[in-house]
Amino acid sequence: MQARAIVLHEPGRIALNTLALDAPGPADAVIAVRWSGISTGTERLLWSGRMPSFPGMGYPLVPGYESVGTVVAAGADSGVSPGQTVFVPGARCFGPVRGLFGGAASHLVSAGARLVPLDPALGERGILMALAATARHALGSVASGPSLIVGHGVLGRLLARLTVAAGGTPVVWETDALRAQGGEGYAVLHPEADPRRDYATITDASGDAGLLDTLIGHLAPGGEIVLAGFYEAPLAFTFPPAFLREARIRVAAQWKPEDLATVVTLVASGCLSLDGLVTHRQPAANAAQAYRTAFGEPACLKMILDWSAA
């Protein structure tokens, strides 16, 4: 079997190549991908060559962990059936070409246990499940007291929507006037316009390694800063302000299966909306242009690749 796949041969050089797929086993399924998303966090770092050392790193590689497609073949022990719409959180099925994270391809082979059945009515919005699960994992349980979210991209918006759904009233910081638009049930402020210094929780979705001192200055005594971005530079902070506040700093790593299950339920029940987050679309054949747009245009919240013609 073969697939058309996005291959990052080296930083800045992306091509749509034909790759051989690993043969599926009895616990695997073959998925025809319809849409895949471009991550402006990890994929931007891979594309630019600034990705810190990470398990599985190396070029060439197939990126992507936000794919939605249809099961076209299913092993007897896969737990899924042909015709099902599923979310695929990446795959490693391209032989010598690394799958980091391996979801940006026309067809994928994946263990059935990794696939998440979705309502077909979700359509392209289904690719947002990974970011929604990431947001859910970062939040944990919504703490009492005022909360701040830094960054009004897709992850920041999902953090805010989940906080509102849980009964919270977050404030979001955003420095770009265009991205500051679109708050639903919460305030979006420029950091300089926010005098508050008593946030119980501050969740950073910006990936800016230089923000810690600023965030600590807005934290309540005993408050927590959650690092929900992916940081290319070392993080540091001035100790005395953090000491005086007894600040806590928590790193939110990759989402867990229970986070994904929770957001699937929230979306299905209508408690979490994924509307308005996919803003740009390109055929997979235009991948090089799509990546430049995703990483270079503030108006682009989420770019997806359409594999229907690949």
Oligomer, anyone? Answer: single chain
Order of helices and strands: EEEHEEEEEEHEHEEEHEHEHEHE
Total number of β-strand segments?
Answer: 17
Write down the CATH topology of the largest domain. Answer: Quinone Oxidoreductase, Chain A, domain 1
Question: Tell me about the biggest sheet?
Answer: 7 strands, mixed
Radius of gyration, in angstroms, nearest whole number: 20 Å
Unreliable stretches, pLDDT < 50, 5 or more residues? none
- Terminal CA distance reads 15 Å
CATH architecture of the largest domain: Alpha-Beta Complex
Query: How much of the residues is beta strand, in percent?
Result: 25-35%
Total helical segments: 7
- Can you identify the CATH superfamily of the largest domain? Medium-chain alcohol dehydrogenases, catalytic domain
Question: What number of structural domains do the residues give?
Answer: 2
Which word captures the global form? globular
According to CATH, what is the class of the largest domain? Alpha Beta
What is the average of the pLDDT values? 94
> Structural class from helices and strands?
alpha/beta
Percent helix = 10-25%
